Automatic annotation (TrEMBL):
Recorded topology in the membrane: Multi-pass membrane protein
Record-given protein name: F0F1 ATP synthase subunit I
Superkingdom as given in the UniProt entry: Bacteria
Keyword Transit peptide (UniProt): no
Organism annotation: Moraxella pluranimalium
Subcellular location: Cell membrane
TM stretches of this protein: 21-38, 44-68, 88-105, 111-130
Keyword Transcription set for record: no
InterPro entries per record: ATP_synth_I
Biological classification of the source: Bacteria, Pseudomonadati, Pseudomonadota, Gammaproteobacteria, Moraxellales
Length: 133
């Protein structure tokens, strides 16, 4: 037998999303340390990891604020539409953000951008997995 889904606490989810800024700072520090260890004079690795993590953070924040804007059992249809809208906004912000990164920051290391983005996605997934509401 299945159980109904537990109710999401909007303020707790918003609070956890804001705490992801510490993960962005951590990824940037890892990028700077990696650049120093590798002898990267232009800090291309640090720039790439910073931009990848910032793009991921902004996209995930937009999704969180759009998707969890409406709560309540009466608004089930609106909540589902907000989830779709949030996912579309997340993809749009990610694509535009990465395009601007590669166009306007050509010295950034491409692999570092992808690694920074993936590290933020992993950090967000782990944080939300352990959010028991």
């Amino acid at each position: 037998m299945t159980q109904p889904a537990k109710r999401n606490h909007q303020t707790l989810i918003y609070q956890r999303q804001k705490r992801q800024s510490y993960a962005v700072l951590g990824v940037i520090v890892i990028g700077v340390i990696t650049s120093l260890v590798m002898g990267d004079a232009q800090y291309a690795i640090a720039k790439g990891m910073a931009m990848g993590s910032i793009v991921a953070y902004i996209a995930q924040s937009a999704f969180t604020y759009i998707a969890y804007h409406t709560t309540g059992a009466r608004y089930a249809r609106q909540i589902m539409l907000n989830m779709y809208l949030g996912q579309m906004a997340k993809w749009l912000i990610t694509l535009v953000g990465l395009a601007f990164t590669f166009i306007y920051l050509p010295t950034a290391n491409v692999i570092a951008v992808i690694i920074g983005y993936l590290l933020m996605m992993i950090a967000h997934s782990v944080t939300m997995f352990f959010t028991k509401t």
